Amino acid sequence: MKYSLQTRCIHLEQDQKAEKPEHFGAISYPIYQTATYAHPRLGESTGYDYSRLQNPTRAHLEQVVAKLEYGIDAFALSSGMAAITLLMELFQPGDHLLVEADLYGGSIRLFDHVNKKNQYEFTYLNFEEDDIESKIQENTKAIYIETPTNPMMHVSDIEKIAQIAKKHNLLFIVDNTFLSPYFQNPLLLGADVVIHSGTKFLGGHNDTLAGFIVTNREDVQEKLRFLIKTTGAGLAPFDSWLLLRGIKTLAIRMEQAQKNAQKIAEWLSEQKQVKRVIYPGLPSFPQYEVMKKQARGFGAMLTFELEHEEQAKDVLNHIKLIKFAESLGGVETLMTYPTTQTHADVPEEVRLKNGITGATLRLSTGIEDIEDLLEDLKQAFEKI
Predict the structure, then answer these.
(1) Tens digits of per-residue pLDDT, 53-64?
(2) Exactly one of 52, 217, 323, 353 is catalytic; which is it?
(3) pTM of the full predicted structure?
């Protein structure tokens, strides 16, 4: 029987039921909080030897995420940045990557201060506007994008870029954190690898860190399975259980958060202090049709810019229900100031070129009652 996506978030383990023990009928998958495993005898194994190599709870989580993203395998790591760091181990000194210019600041920091030190080369592009093929070099090995991007919500046409990547034999990597597997599946659109900060929508409760790499290529799978056991950043058993718990409510959280984001975006669009609202669900959004083509929804993330920097700071100082905090994707609505938080380490000239000013605010919409959220925004705006 083929279940809906909503049901699969809760009952996906039934696909694997014949392959694992019954666990005494436990509805919640058990936490195997062990570092090592006893062997029945010499030359025999339970299938698990040491939790750095693999753990039953983490293995189950990886099966769930792989199936949600339609991949052949997934790798659960200790954070989103740990996932990207591991992925970069696929490359060699001298390799060149084409990378989206408007990325999460932590990714830019990794590329510019760690990977470049190791003699990787990066060219930052606006994949909506730049001629991608003209930037490909003899040593180019991969294309790396976020869509939508963090925080300016740029949307790239995944199928179009996938065709270019395949034409030039490049690995195509898509960070799908903002939409989650519930709203978008890049592997079905031609990507080779999908990245997630599992801390965000997959976890959904702002209570743990996690990262994922998902692939549909056996050669990439084999290399990553060797790397994860060698480098040792696999997700711990309890954190794996928290992610399994979070994914059970992924569908209902994404639906409610998206409804709230749409209404907040429409409300912000009517405020005289707001210079622009960037949300893929607004018909005025430049890539609105691309989003409708490649995603099942518009997500819960939006960015807006006020007329003046002091207004943005006033809003941050006066919100009450909405929390001024880093991160995104939880049940709580969070407001972030990219200039001093997510993109603090990005040079100012790069931030400004990407459109991030001192008046820019990013909102991760939660699942609270929409009227309460709007009332909080109204009272904050009255004070600017």
Answers:
(1) 999 999 999 999
(2) 52
(3) 0.95
